[in-house]
Amino acid sequence: MADMASGTLITVAPTGAESAKSDVPALPVTVDEMVSTAKGCEAAGAAVIHVHLRDSDAKPTLDVARAREVVDAIRETTDLIVQISSGGAVTDSEESRLGVLECQPDGASLTCGTVNFGTDVFLNRWEFIERLYLEMRERRIVPEFELFDLGHVTTMQRLLDKHGAPYGGHVHCDLVMGVPGGMPGTAHALMSCVNALPAEATWSATGVGRTTIPVMLAALAAGGHLRVGMEDTITFAPGRPVRDNAELVERAADLARLAQRPPLSVEDARDMLGLSQDRSIPTQTGAQA
Ligand code: KMH
Ligand code: ZN
């Protein structure tokens, strides 16, 4: 097995819920587009795919049948670790955000607090965060703690203190930076969060919009992992739209190699995230039942 600290986990978030297909034609929204995106990104060095669903009109959805279709199709054609978004769109109900877990992915995102989201609010009440966390453990889904602000780190710690370790026994977080309303995409903000994380946690970071490159460089320098993709970045360079998700993964992989922390294989990513063990359910204290 490769030394985890010397490799870089690359997660691709190819779609998101915020951009319209009509505005961003390269955004993958159909099952076929998701599959070809997944294949291209795996070849470029991604190990995890963070999946947002779109319906036949390319609108965000949390429809479980659609979720199963997309998750199964990606699994059939790649080895990628499939992480479903439980965040969905800011308009999604709590019940639909819980319900999408029925598609039985490897992992799911779990946002640890409310955050202003441009002119909207991404609402994540404490009781709902607890329900999502416990439901994921019940279903043997590995959470990725999505942290948009420093206070979300505190909430994640509160969750772990109250309910014990997640399924898989390992804590992996993603710092989502530069959302208008969340923490800025700066090295200073990144280090404030990293310094507050549990010592045993691993983390990735993504910078929205033009913060993507500074956040990527800061994360690599600080020993973190990377998330990239058109959920967060639709402009490759000033005035130049992103061609496809694979080119964002390629750029991240190139920078990871330059930092002498090359992309982790899917197998090593599974080991790091606690996805290699048998799927037994952890007890309250985090020990395997
Ligand atoms: N689309 C955002 C409102 C997640 O995927 O869990 C929420 C989001 C986080 O993207
Ligand atoms: Zn997302």
Structure description:
Helices cover 36% and strands 18% of the residues. It is of the alpha/beta class. The chain has a single domain (4-273), classed as Aldolase class I (TIM Barrel). β9, α5 (150-163) and β10 form a beta-alpha-beta unit. The radius of gyration is 17 Å and the shape is globular. (5S)-5-amino-3-OXO-hexanoic acid (KMH) binds at residues 16-17, 85-87, 89-90, 109, 111, 117, 122, 146. Zinc ion binds next to loops.
Task: List descriptors.
289 residues; alpha/beta; TIM Barrel; eight-stranded parallel β-barrel; two-stranded antiparallel sheet; 9 helices; 14 strands; disordered C terminus; binds (5S)-5-amino-3-OXO-hexanoic acid; binds zinc ion
Short description:
The chain has 289 residues and is α/β, with parallel strands linked by helices. It has one domain: Alpha-Beta Barrel (TIM Barrel), CATH 3.20.20.70.
